[in-house]
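G., the chain you wanted modeled:
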Amino acid sequence: MYQNKITLSPEEILKKEFRIDTRGYRLKEVDQYLDTIIGDYEQFYEIINSLEKEKADLLAENVNLKQELRNSKLNMEVMRTSESAEVTNVDILRRLSQLEKLVYASMKPTDEKNDN
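Predicted structure as tokens:
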């Protein structure tokens, strides 16, 4: 993916040999080669920065998705418990109604006795 942007490989840099003039290496040749290396380094930094930004974006998205998943699980659990709570509430109301009938039924004879 990024290989097209990079001119030199580490192996090419290692094997590079410069021609020698009377006073040493040809400066123009060395400068051109160093310019190529500098260009590659700039590309490396651009690639690294873009990948770091992409990584940060993906991590943020991952955190958001995990939070959404937690919220969804929590909502599902609330829905399950509320459905069972409604059934339980209905059962409780029925039982309460039956108890009230029993209590009021048992209270009537004692109230009648007190009235006499």
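The chain is about 80% helix and 5% strand.

Shout if anything looks off.
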